[in-house]
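Support request from a user on the community tier.

User writes: "When I paste my structure tokens into the form, the page sometimes reloads and wipes my input. The last time it worked, I copied everything first. Here is what I submitted, just in case something in the input itself triggers the reload:"
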């Protein structure tokens, strides 16, 4: 069965509210046993709409479903998860542009656009570098597209844009396929993650283009939720000010395992790859291969690769183990950091054929001891300021094979000469004297502290910078 939303009275003039017409088309197709709801060219203003079992929502080229900017136009629901942090997760009376709750065999396809009307949900900022602080939850859209407790989901071809919180949230769903999706968000939209995968199983993401402010693709787990397992991400082009390919951090309460990131380009990120276990979870069996990246972004303390683990509040140790990174290239001004708090563990990490190219070199020793936000190896003060391209603290079973570093030569290129930077997670701004030393400072290639069972090979071409040794082994505290 197919229904065009125009048959239900929808009007694509950009001003008429079409919530009832669109929802009636979805309901009719679902009641008939499934089929397609067609959105033709036009701008269709709508409140929150809900998908149903075996319904395919197809947006033709030129079709736009645009969120009404009025909170009162959106039906409300209670989120099936609750995690109050930094706004955005109060459970009651929340809304999305599109939600699928407990659905089976659903799809969102076509060449059209889902527009979250993001600027309706956050105020302007006083400086283009700083992120706006979003309105309180009662005035703020939750994830624009929310897929919760669904099975057999296909999202293909559509553009998702202009959000005021997460863009596409895949939550505790199984057998999800996202292919050829384009996500484009304002460069300073608050918490504007691209794709968040929370407690899902068997997820394939490929051939996507994501340009957003916050994390591009992130795997997460909630306090009362499931583990996240069997996720493959490949052939994507990502641009983000935060982390391109990420596991955990604020939401890292359950285990994450069996993950691959491959054949991706990550541009303008503060971290191309970031793994953060903070609440007693184990992240394991992760393979990252063929990644090309740069950290050309006005943020303090960029890290092309960053692993960080910390103990849970109740003392349970967090763990990252069995991580294999190969074929990783970054043009950067920052350092690779692998850090674990005392009691937590990073085990069995391989870095093979990793190349860092430095057009310029920021100095973490100037402000690194006190600035950097919660995602900057907080419990490891030595690593925060250590001058080395690869800094490793509290790791057991490290293998480095074929690590290459190209140190700065000549003047800083204009594209990398930032006059101001912001620290992640803050509204604080910094000038060049806060991150660029007056004269070149010595940087080692590798610095190790509390590292056991390391195997270092393929390092014949390594040198230190400005007279520094190749490898520094820091004494135990």
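"...and here is what came back when it finally went through:"
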């Amino acid at each position: 069965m197919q229904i065009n939303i125009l048959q239900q009275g929808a009007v694509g003039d950009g001003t008429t509210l079409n919530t009832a017409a669109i929802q009636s088309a979805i309901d009719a197709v679902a009641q008939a046993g499934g089929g397609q709801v067609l959105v033709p060219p036009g701008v269709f203003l709508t409140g929150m709409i809900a998908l149903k079992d075996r319904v395919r929502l197809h947006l033709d080229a030129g079709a736009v479903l645009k969120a009404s900017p009025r909170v009162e136009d959106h039906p409300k629901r209670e989120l099936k998860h609750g995690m109050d942090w930094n706004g955005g997760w109060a459970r009651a009376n929340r809304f999305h542009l599109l939600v699928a709750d407990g659905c089976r065999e659903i799809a969102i396809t076509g060449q059209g656009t889902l527009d979250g009307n993001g600027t309706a949900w956050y105020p302007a900022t006083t400086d283009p570098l700083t992120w706006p602080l979003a309105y309180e939850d009662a005035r703020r859209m939750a994830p624009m597209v929310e897929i919760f407790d669904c099975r057999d989901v296909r999202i293909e071809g559509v553009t998702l844009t202009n959000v005021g919180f997460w863009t596409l949230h895949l939550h505790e769903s199984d057998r999800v396929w996202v292919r050829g999706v384009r996500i484009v968000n304002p460069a300073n939209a608050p918490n504007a993650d691209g794709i968040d995968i929370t407690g899902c199983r068997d997820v394939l993401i490929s051939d996507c283009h994501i340009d957003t402010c916050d994390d591009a693709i992130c795997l997460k787990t909630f306090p009362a939720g499931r583990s996240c397992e069997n996720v493959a991400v490949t052939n994507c082009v990502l641009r983000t000010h935060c982390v391109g390919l990420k596991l955990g951090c604020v939401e890292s309460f359950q285990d994450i395992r069996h993950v691959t990131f491959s054949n991706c380009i990550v541009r303008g990120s503060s971290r191309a790859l970031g793994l953060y276990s903070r609440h007693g979870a184990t992240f394991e069996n992760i393979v990252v291969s063929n990644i090309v990246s740069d950290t050309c972004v006005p943020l303090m303390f960029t890290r092309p690769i960053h692993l960080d683990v910390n103990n849970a509040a109740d003392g349970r140790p967090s763990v990252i183990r069995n991580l294999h990174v190969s074929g990783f290239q970054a043009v950067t001004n920052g350092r690779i950091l692998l850090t674990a708090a005392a009691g937590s563990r990073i085990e069995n990490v391989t870095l093979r054929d990793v190349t860092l190219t430095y057009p310029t070199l920021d100095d973490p020793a100037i402000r690194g001891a006190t600035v950097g936000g919660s995602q900057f190896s907080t419990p490891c003060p030595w690593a925060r300021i250590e001058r080395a391209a690869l800094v490793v603290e509290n790791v057991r079973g490290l293998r480095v094979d074929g690590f290459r570093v190209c140190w700065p030569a000549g003047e800083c290129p204009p594209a990398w000469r930032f006059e101001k930077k912001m620290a992640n997670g803050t509204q604080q701004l910094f000038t060049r004297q806060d991150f660029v030393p007056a004269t070149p400072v010595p940087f080692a290639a590798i610095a190790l502290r509390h590292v056991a069972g390391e195997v270092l090979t393929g390092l014949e071409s390594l040198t230190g910078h400005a007279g520094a040794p190749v490898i520094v082994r820091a004494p135990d505290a």
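Agent notes: The reload is a front-end session timeout and is unrelated to the input. The radius of gyration is 23 Å. The mean pLDDT is 94. Escalated to web team.
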